[in-house]
């Protein structure tokens, strides 16, 4: 009985709808399959997931990156970047290297000649010193940490990145930090510490003192290239102490 009443109601509303269409001058309707195809695209036409199916992301209003962003997403957005003048002389973009889930992240200044040639950060002389400090000093493989720079293209003649270049590239450093979610960041040298802390710092005075970038503890230390230039026992001891503290904090509960 209930079924028959439902069917009658359905028929009545279909008739009313058809009459409305007629009043609007619509005399033919597409076949059901065609209509369905218009409404719902074939699975191959769909985005990886519909908006409802995609995991909800919380966007950080300060950086514009979602909390589920990956390093691949950030690299993809960077693309074949031509956003600033540093693209003109670069051979390769030097994005970053290491563990995408690292607890410890190192942020340097910008690629040098070796990095530009190989497309990897910290592989030249300063990089060898940094790698030695990580592997022989901290006794962890370099592949366990994540390493990147504030700018992804080599500044001409290895000059320091200019502030507009660092600001333009900052979106991608922010993305890398959002993707890796390190427990501790070690900033190497003055430009990296100044960018992360949002003020010009005197690195020889600030080094060794805990700072904060958003909610992440930052240990500012000397740049390995500076240590190479001033290879004193004091500089080496200071950097060693800074790195030890950073590792311990990254392991603390
Ligand atoms: N110096 C940096 O700051 N970064 C590198 O990748 C290499 C040298």
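Q: What amino acid sequence fits the structure above?
A:
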């Amino acid at each position: 009985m209930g079924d028959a009443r439902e069917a009658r109601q359905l028929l009545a509303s279909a008739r009313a709808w058809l009459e409305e269409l007629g009043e609007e001058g619509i005399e033919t309707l597409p076949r059901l399959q065609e209509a369905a195809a218009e409404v719902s695209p074939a699975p191959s036409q769909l985005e990886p997931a519909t908006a409802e199916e995609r995991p909800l992301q919380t966007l950080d209003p300060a950086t514009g990156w979602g909390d589920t962003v990956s390093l691949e997403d950030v690299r993809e957005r960077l693309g074949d970047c031509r956003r600033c003048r540093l693209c003109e002389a670069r051979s390769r973009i030097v994005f970053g290297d290491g563990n995408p889930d690292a607890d410890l992240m190192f942020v340097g200044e910008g690629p040098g000649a070796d990095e530009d040639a190989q497309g990897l950060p910290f592989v030249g002389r300063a990089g060898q010193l940094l790698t030695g400090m990580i592997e022989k000093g901290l006794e962890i493989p370099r592949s366990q940490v994540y390493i990147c720079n504030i700018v992804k293209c080599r500044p001409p003649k290895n000059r320091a990145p200019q502030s507009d270049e660092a600001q333009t590239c900052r979106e991608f450093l922010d993305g890398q930090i959002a993707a890796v979610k390190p427990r501790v960041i070690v900033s190497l040298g003055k430009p990296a510490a100044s960018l992360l802390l949002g003020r010009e710092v005197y690195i020889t005075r600030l080094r060794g003192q805990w700072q904060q970038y958003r909610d992440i503890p930052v240990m500012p230390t000397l740049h390995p290239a500076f240590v190479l230039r001033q290879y004193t026992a004091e500089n080496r001891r200071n950097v060693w102490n800074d790195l030890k503290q950073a590792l311990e904090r990254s392991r603390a509960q």
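Q: And what stands out in the fold?
A: The chain has two domains: 2-41, 72-252.
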